[in-house]
Amino acid sequence: MDFSSKLLENAVNEVSRLPGIGKRTALRLVLHLLKQPVEHTKYLSEALLHLRNDVKTCEKCHNISDTVLCDICQNPRRNPALVCVVEDIRDVMAIESTSQFKGLYHVLGGKISPIEGIGPQNLKIDSLVHKIGEGEIKELIFALSSTMEGDTTNFYIFKQIEKFNIITSTIARGISVGDELEYADEVTLGRSIVNRIPFEQSIRS
Ligand SMILES: [Zn+2]
């Protein structure tokens, strides 16, 4: 792309570093901003900077939060004995939108993936094992996507916590293997949490 302006080129280059945004899309977005009042660009940059500087990770569940403990962990009406293990905040948002789950979450921050160089030590697994060791958690629900990485991660965690003798279950999937949790519709996802199955049964089938 030949740019008549270095300023334009820099802005396009920065925007195109975002996932799924090619140079052409970046140019369209930047030109759109140029046509809008300058405040729009100001609010956008300020919101992003604020997010980057001030966002926290909940100390208990590792979900993205504005406070040291997130709203879900702070809510006295949630059941701390029931914990749902998910990959990231998108899964928390998907499950919350079903209104079928009243427990707490544990956000791993990813899945075990040797190809991408992600091992158990890169995920929030130790803190989960530690939390279970403290005795408050009675049931753990695995809600990772049913991909090979998801299954590997579930099994790894299961092996780590077997000794604690808590109930482990996995969400019943009405959706085909490989579908990401985030894309499941609310009704299907809600039902799959209510109809969860014992984890050991899921690895035998
Ligand atoms: Zn939390």
From TrEMBL:
One of its GO terms (biological process) is DNA repair. GO terms for molecular function: DNA binding; zinc ion binding. Residues 81-176 form the Toprim domain. A zinc finger (C4-type) spans 58-73. Keywords: DNA damage, DNA recombination, DNA repair, Metal-binding, Zinc, Zinc-finger. SMART domains: TOPRIM (SM00493). Belongs to the RecR family. May play a role in DNA repair. It seems to be involved in an RecBC-independent recombinational process of DNA repair. It may act with RecF and RecO. This is Recombination protein RecR.
